[in-house]
Each structure stands twice: as structure tokens, then as C-alpha cells.
Design a protein that fits this description.
By secondary structure, this protein is mainly alpha-helical. The chain has a single domain, classed as dinb family like domain (Four Helix Bundle (Hemerythrin (Met), subunit A), Up-down Bundle), CATH 1.20.120. It contains 7 helices and 2 strands, in the order αααααββαα. A two-stranded antiparallel ribbon has the order 1-2. α1 packs antiparallel against α3, α3 runs parallel beside α4 and α3 runs antiparallel to α6. The longest helix has 30 residues. The two termini are about 20 Å apart.
């Protein structure tokens, strides 16, 4: 059996974002039970030179929408980075999932060898579609989700591996 670019991207990205949302649900429940200000989790960091949890979630969402948009050759929607608490971050995840759900397999399939160029300041990184998906997009989603998980777990939120993996 062959897996298509669509199957390897959109459903996996949506699943990852659903799992990330679930982690934030658990954090919201924890914050409410412990009477913790809802902005505390969004601004927390594992270490002073790391991005806060809010930025980890924003990047996870940006990676997903950017990956699929670039593969499909459509405009990447801009989301303002203004989220202040877990509910705001949940809304961002929901917007990103809705965007991903708007794609059809024929928009993504066949993009294995598509040229993708990412510009970061003066630097350009060149990928082929499959390499971009498997070597850049999915690892970035997992990195930022794992970092979010670690921040929440280290703060006492009762989450475990099954919360991270969700329903595969």
C-alpha cells in the first residue's frame, strides 16, 4: 500500500493539533481547579532563553498551515500573535485545524518533488515537497508540541503519554 502526500500531511497535522489542544484542555482544567491565573501557563518557559508556551503553540500552528499552504501553492493565512491565555491558544488551534480541513487530497498529492523555498531573513532553504513534509514540517510540529507538553507536565498538569499521542 502506498501513502499519499495528503495522507502523510493533513490528517497527521490535524491529529497533532487535536492532541495539542487536548493538552491545553487539561492545563485549563488544572488552572481552574488550582485557581491559577489563566495567563500563567501561556507565559511560562522551561528556561529563560526559550520561547514561552504561547509561542510554542503559535509556531506549531504556523508550521502546519505553512506546510500545507506551500505544498498546495496557496496563500498562507496570517494570524496575529496576540494570544494571552489558554483559551486564546485553543482558538488559534481551532482556526488552524479549520484551514487544514479545507484542503482536498488532489491539492496536496503529487507534491513530493515540488520545489519549496523558505526565507528567514537573508537565508533561503530549499526543499522538495516530501523532504519539506518529513524533514521540516512534521518534526517541527512534534518539537513544539513536545515542548508544550514538557512545560505543562513540569508545572504539575496531570498529563501523560496517552494525552500526547491522543487517538491515533
Amino acid at each position: 500500500m502506498t501513502i499519499s502526500m495528503y495522507q502523510a500531511s493533513v490528517p497527521r497535522l490535524i491529529n497533532g493539533l487535536i492532541n495539542l489542544s487536548h493538552l491545553l484542555d487539561k492545563a485549563q482544567t488544572h488552572a481552574e481547579a488550582k485557581k491559577i491565573d489563566p495567563t500563567v501557563f501561556a507565559s511560562m518557559r522551561l528556561y529563560p532563553d526559550m520561547f514561552p508556551l504561547s509561542r510554542q503553540v503559535q509556531i506549531a500552528c504556523d508550521v502546519c498551515k505553512g506546510l500545507v499552504a506551500r505544498l498546495a501553492g496557496v496563500e498562507i493565512p496570517a494570524h496575529e500573535d496576540t494570544e494571552k491565555d489558554l483559551k486564546d491558544l485553543q482558538a488559534r488551534i481551532a482556526k488552524t485545524i479549520a484551514f487544514l480541513e479545507s484542503f482536498k487530497p488532489e491539492q496536496i498529492n503529487g507534491t513530493e518533488d515540488k520545489d519549496i523555498v523558505i526565507k528567514r531573513g537573508e537565508k533561503e532553504t530549499h526543499y522538495k515537497g516530501m523532504q519539506f513534509l518529513l524533514g521540516h514540517g512534521l518534526p517541527n510540529l512534534y518539537f513544539h508540541t513536545t515542548t508544550t507538553y514538557s512545560m505543562l507536565r513540569a508545572s504539575g498538569v496531570e498529563i501523560g503519554k496517552s494525552d500526547y499521542l491522543g487517538k491515533i
